[in-house]
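User: quick one, fold this
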Amino acid sequence: MGRDGNRKYHDRVAGKYDTIYDTPYWRFYRDVSWRHLKPFLPVKRPAWAADLGCGTGWFGCRLLKSGMNVVFLDLSGAMVGAAREAAEAESSRGLETRFVQAGMEEMGEIESGLLDFATAQGDPLSFCEQPARALAELARIVKPGGHVVLSVDSRVAGVKSLLGEKRPDAALELLRTGRTKWKSDRSEEAFGMKMFEPDELKTLLERAGFEPLSLIAKTCLVQRSNDAWLDDAAQARELLSAEERVHARPEWWGLAGHLQVAAKRR
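Assistant:
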């Protein structure tokens, strides 16, 4: 039921997804994410990369622009179709693309050891019913020495939100288990999700065969309600610089809704 709800929701919103996230804040958020991700890309290119939970393919297209062959993978068929359309303009330079409809827990269509790099943005690992299984699959398809950059939902932010909604029972349950429900107005689109603490995320990666290298929270200083701050280009650059000064420091992580971790396949 949870996986079906996830797929149904993302199938429904695929056509308007880019419009929903085309705001100054979300552009800032993607910029922060990409700038942290970029140093972990393979030096030798073309190489094989994957955009897991690709959505409409924003990160996968950036990987194509950076000179990599890319696997676009998503549980939603509508999202895979949107990513295919977006990638067409970037795949005409001799680079290869593949499109796979699957969740991170079931990536059997991708060969073992194919990838030099993988990213999972938009928090698909948080939407997995079995995150440890998803990470085991990820370890299977990434070459030893390859890198991954994963974005997940922060448990601290989830608990804070539920407390703000005057839902102490739900907040305590999330604190105890790390699990909560995706908020949806449609019962058929309901699905569970996992929110992570930093040490928990690192431990899961280590158990799957990865060495965590860098962890940031995003975004610490600029929030979704602060779109107007980013209208001025000079101020936006100053805020980005400030964000990058603090987002790797644990004392600031409680301000952010998401965590992003980079790790190396041992």
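User: anything notable?
Assistant: Residues 49 and 70 are 5 Å apart (CA to CA).
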